[in-house]
Amino acid sequence: MPFRWRSDGDYIKKLPLTRRIMPHIMRTRTESQVYFEQKINVTQMWEFIRECREKSRITFLQYFIWAGAQTIRKFPDLNRFVAGKRIYQRRGIWVSFSAKKEKTDKSPIVVVKTKIDPKIDFLTTAQMIQNQIAERFSDKKSTTDKELSLAFLLPNFIIGFISRLLMWLDHFGFLPGSMIQKDEMFSSVFIANLGSIGLDAAYHHLFEYGNIPFFVAIGQKKDEAVLDENGNLGVAPIVTIRYTFDERITDGLYCMKALEHLKEMLENPVISVS
């Protein structure tokens, strides 16, 4: 049917009417945002990372990306998005994340977009992510960098017109697949690892451009008071994670169950999942 075909997703025909109407009554991601916070006890995670570093250089972010893909595999409704007031199932699990080249104010932020196969074990996935980060940190310009460099040779009013045109094309499903595949704003989730630069997690807005339904901010590790299984007070390393979620794609209970599954994976890390 016209306007329903997209290169990055499949139109979902059978949805409850109350779900189908949501993009019409909540027309933007801004008015559809829901916020959620998790406190992750990373005691076992840090031990897991130390053991894995005997084989490969890994980070919490790499494991979070892999565990997130496992969660989306188990809860596929999370991998939906809204475009043109319609709800689509995304093809593949795509993750965009930001990183700084150096921990300085003037250091640029680079964004990496990668496709994650949840059937691949963690260590292999971590190495792939590390290779992609190294490539982005090199002097080689990405496709997005090249396109923006050309765009800013134009007057501002033309840039504004092009931006509106791209959003119009995306709305009706006419945006070329080659652009969508390379654009970091067309992903299953966007992750900002603020803890890597010594910051705590923040609730981030969702972008109207693109179709990302999740934004995740990971905070720095802090020692906090916790209760053990017997109710005794103690201290443990805690990482705060804050999520911003477009509730039009699925209901809050489904999302909550998915994030609880993710928390379980983060607090009890594994190499692979069958």
What's the helix and strand layout?
Blueprint: E1 9-11, H1 17-20, H2 22-25, E2 33-41, H3 43-52, H4 60-74, E3 80-83, E4 86-90, E5 93-100, E6 109-116, H5 122-137, H6 143-151, H7 156-171, H8 177-182, E7 189-193, E8 214-227, E9 233-246, H9 252-267
For the biggest sheet, the summary is: 6 strands, mixed
Gap between N and C termini:
37 Å
Strand order of the largest sheet: 2-9-8-7-5-6
Please indicate the percent range of residues in DSSP E strands (runs of 2 or more). 25-35%
Mean pLDDT level: 90
* CATH superfamily placement: Chloramphenicol acetyltransferase-like domain
CATH architecture label: 2-Layer Sandwich
CATH structural fold name:
Chloramphenicol Acetyltransferase
Strand pairing plus helix content: what structural class?
alpha+beta
Instruction: Write down the domain tally.
Output: 1
Tally of individual helices: 9
How big is the Rg? 19 Å
Categorize the overall geometry.
Answer: globular
Write a structural description.
- This protein has 274 residues and is of the alpha+beta class.
- The protein has a single domain, classed as Chloramphenicol acetyltransferase-like domain (Chloramphenicol Acetyltransferase).
- Helix content is 35%, strand content 26%.
- It is built from nine helices and nine strands.
- The protein has helices at 17-20, 22-25, 43-52, 60-74, 122-137, 143-151, 156-171, 177-182, 252-267, and strands spanning 9-11, 33-41, 80-83, 86-90, 93-100, 109-116, 189-193, 214-227, 233-246.
- It has a six-stranded mixed β-sheet with strand order 2-9-8-7-5-6. The protein has a three-stranded antiparallel β-sheet with strand order 1-4-3, with no helix packed on it.
- The longest helix is centred in the middle third of the chain and has 16 residues, at 122-137.
- The model has no long low-confidence stretch (mean pLDDT 90).
